[in-house]
Write a structure and sequence with these properties.
The complex is a heterodimer of chains A (247) and B (172). Chain A is mainly alpha-helical and 247 residues long. Chain A is built from 8 helices and no strands. Chain A has one domain: Rhopdopsin 7-helix transmembrane proteins, CATH 1.20.1070. The longest helix of chain A has 31 residues. Chain B is mainly α and 172 residues long. Chain B has one domain. Chain B has 7 helices and no strands. In chain B, helix 5 packs antiparallel against helix 6 and helix 6 runs antiparallel to helix 7. The longest helix of chain B is centred in the middle third of the chain and has 36 residues. Classes of the chains: A mainly alpha (247), B mainly alpha (172). At the A-B interface, helix 4, helix 5, helix 6 and helix 8 of A face helix 1, helix 2, helix 4, helix 5 and helix 6 of B.
């Protein structure tokens, strides 16, 4: 079976998954904590349905497609902010430091985004398509960089990710990373890579949808205590430490 | 050129996501608190002991021994860092407790554990410098009292919520 035949089937599967995700998000009242993510998911479903119905009308399809892409990129920053805010909500002592590091990282990544924008050229003959792809590559570079920063920061400080939060971040990370690879390949190889690139994008998006659904539906496991020493041991340590401090 | 840089960033991100998801799976399977022998930790950081060794040993022997001491100290700091992360996770579960006193104590524990994580990073940097330049003396002196304070706060949390936090206090 060729990729061209598989693409519409994967597209429909994606819309079914998007519909399921929207139901789960609304049923679990996730919009309270993740309003932008909920809007992003519902908006994605509606745009997917619109694009599917317009697939034979090239002009209308292109207009809706680029509108969806631009809004998707902007909402991506909103999702990133929601993940960042929710993750640091429990750690007030880290907020100032995190904001400071985040601002510098964002500045550096925006600079990188500008470099990507100005130095990149597309193999596409359509100037609008070419510009949009370069903008998308630059924006995705910033988003991927911010997400990498967030995962590294959380790992360095041993921050605990709630299951649903981790799921949102992981799914979003999978999607935008593969998107970045796909857009870069599309820019580099031009129109010839389009089918393979679209296939990779749909697979990545469906994988993200499965990740979001999985992490939202599976109940969070609780940590267990193992082989815990006696209280007397703690008292011994306390005594030794007090001696040390007063030496 | 820029395409390769962008591709490298994207592929690094995918690899990072894979490792993060994998390590989360491993942690979920079983995360055990490990005790820290603060007595031994104190001995390792003792500068008098180090001065004694510096005088008694040849330079090459001292460098070799100092590096081994630093390596062991790094393991202790690593264990403190890991224990703090476990404390963070468990205290976070208690932060929304119906009992306001428990929630407040949990918040204090979170603050303290966060500070320890920051100090651990500083300690790692200092110990790396000491490993590279053994003649340096950059003891992570503030880490130990803070870790002690964390224990006290976890113990207090344990007295408020004995079934959850008391075993943790004894474990760290």
């Amino acid at each position: 079976m060729s990729l061209k035949v598989l693409l519409p089937q994967l597209w429909i599967a994606g819309m079914v998954l998007q519909a399921l995700l929207a139901i789960v998000l609304l049923a679990k009242k996730t919009w309270k904590n993740f309003p932008v993510f909920t809007i992003y998911s519902i908006f994605g479903l509606m745009m997917g349905l619109s694009l599917y119905s317009l697939r034979f009308s090239k002009l209308a399809y292109n207009q809706v497609y680029w509108f969806t892409e631009v809004l998707g990129l902007l909402l991506g920053f909103g999702i990133f902010y929601e993940i960042f805010r929710t993750l640091l909500n429990s750690y007030p002592a880290l907020r100032t430091l995190a904001r400071s590091i985040f601002q510098w990282s964002a500045l550096g990544l925006m600079l990188l985004g500008c470099i990507v924008f100005y130095s990149q050229s597309s193999g596409d003959h359509n100037p609008l398509m070419s510009t949009m792809l370069v903008v998308e590559e630059a924006t995705r570079t910033i988003e991927v960089g911010l997400l990498v920063f967030l995962f590294l920061f959380a790992s360095a400080f041993g921050l605990h990710w709630r299951q649903y939060l981790f799921g949102v971040a992981l799914g979003f990370g999978i999607f935008i990373s593969v998107e970045l690879v796909a857009v870069s390949m599309r820019l580099h190889f031009g129109h010839t890579a389009e089918v393979a690139v679209n296939f990779a994008r749909i697979i990545a998006f469906n994988l993200s949808l499965l990740t979001w659904l999985g992490y939202l539906l599976i109940p969070e496991s609780t940590a267990r205590n193992t082989d815990l020493p006696k209280l007397a041991q703690l008292e011994q340590w306390n005594h030794a430490l007090t001696e040390l401090i007063h030496q | 050129m820029i395409t390769f840089i962008v591709l490298a960033i994207a592929l690094c991100a995918i690899a990072l996501l894979y490792f993060v998801a994998r390590s989360r799976g491993i942690h979920a399977a079983g995360q055990a608190e490990r005790p820290v022998d603060l007595d031994a930790f104190r001995t390792l950081m003792d500068r008098d002991d180090e001065e004694f060794l510096r005088k008694k040993l040849s330079r090459s022997e001292f460098v070799h021994l100092k590096r081994r001491r630093v390596a062991v100290t790094v393991k202790y700091v690593g264990r403190i860092a890991k224990n703090s992360a476990i404390v963070l996770q468990k205290a976070e579960n208690l932060r929304q407790d119906a009992n306001a006193e428990v929630a407040q104590a949990a918040a204090q524990v979170i603050d303290m554990a966060t500070q320890i994580r920051m100090q651990c990073m500083v300690a790692f940097a200092k110990l790396t410098a000491e490993y590279l330049f053994p003649s340096l003396q950059l003891t992570p002196a503030t880490l130990e009292p803070t870790y002690q304070a964390l224990r006290e706060k976890v113990l207090r949390l344990g007295s408020l919520q004995p079934q959850n936090a008391a075993p943790l206090a004894t474990a760290i």
